[in-house]
Amino acid sequence: MFPSFSDQRSLCRASATPNGYFLLLLIISVLIINSAACSNRNCQVLDPCSLATDCGPGLYCGNCPAMGKNQPICTRGQATIPTTIINGLPFNKYSWLMTHNAFSIVDAPPLPGVQRITFYNQEDTVTNQLRNGVRGLMLDMYDFENDIWLCHSFRGQCYNFTAFQPAINTLKEVETFLSENPSEIVTIVIEDYVHTPKGLTNLFTNAGLVKYWFPVSKMPRKGEDWPTMTDMVQENHRLLVFTSIASKEADEGIAYQWRYMVENESGDGGVVQGSCPNRKESQPLNSKSASLFLQNSFPSFPVESDSCKEHSATLGELVGTCYKAAGNVMPNFLAVNFYMRSDGGGVFDVLDRMNGQTLCGCSTVSACQAGAPFGTCKNVAVSNTTQTPNTFGSFSGSVQLSGSASTIHFMNLLYFFLLFFSFLVFQL
């Protein structure tokens, strides 16, 4: 029997004999072999790692202490782009990753001389989110400083301590991405607090995005299929924009979100196991009059270090519950916080399973075969998440820093709560 590493007396006794030396050398050799089992970008998903450079393309080296998994492993950081495997189907047949408050980035600098007091939801730039396969962005837009800003605020008003940046900066990132990737389609969902007449129209025009605009007049209104991905790309209708203000559809030609999609409850109400209620503004999830489905899967109060647990097996269970609640319709958008954090495959594996089931009847999209009959699958295990990553880019943020920002911004959140409740008291 091998001596226990926790039993120092036993180890010393063993090392005092020739057999003990042999056993000790054997143990050391095994440890060295295991530690060197992969490196130099050869490690795959779930392989132990110590550096980001140990992991293959599309992976990073991270851990998940919230689940008791402190050993760093190679973790997925990029989505499989399903149209590279099965293309030409209607837009509403695909499932895409959406980032909740895509602009609310941990390291985003505050306004000069102002301490930002708000929640954070993401860790890398919008450009990098798009490069990693995100295709839906949730943006909160407000009138602020005679312009339109992205703010993570409350009571419908932007303050200097909740402001991030002028919205045009982020929209120009989207324009650059669409320009550089002519076969990609991006969806923007606006939580809209802009009351300036034609404010959003002017904003998107100045950002150079009108040339990609999907016209409201061509959006299906009775639950029909959307145009195919191929047709949308050929027409250059590669930007879908939805607003939460109904009147802007007639006034500015911006689609009213809940006329075209159903949505489950956001925040804590949307992450209760076995439950998937619709958001109050939305039609019932099983409504046949809207052909897009947005699933929110994030808690009310975002915590970086907990998000890896949120993106574990429970995420797949939530998707399954919402799929049934929608009448066996797969969500088209899966909205999450801190999208790259997980215990291995995370949101990316879940999306692969979603697209696999819908596009080809397989357990994962990597098992789909273009041109093959539905249900004809390659022999690919669901747990095999080493498929070729997209070629857009790689992670450049701070995901491997083990939740440091959650600690850094704890006092900000405390101040935010105190400020919010003081506003309530003042109103009373």
TrEMBL record:
What is the superkingdom listed in this entry's lineage? Eukaryota
Give the Gene3D superfamilies listed for this entry: Phosphatidylinositol (PI) phosphodiesterase
Which InterPro entries does the record associate with it?
Answer: PI-PLC_domain, PLC-like_Pdiesterase_TIM-brl
Q: Which Pfam families match?
A: PI-PLC_cat
What's a GO biological-process term for it?
A: lipid metabolic process
The membrane spanning regions, by residue number, are: 20-37, 408-426
Cytoplasm among the record's keywords? no
GO terms assigned for molecular function = phosphoric diester hydrolase activity
Q: What does the UniProt keyword field contain? A: Membrane, Transmembrane, Transmembrane helix
Output this protein's name. PI-PLC X domain-containing protein
This chain's source organism reads Vitis rotundifolia
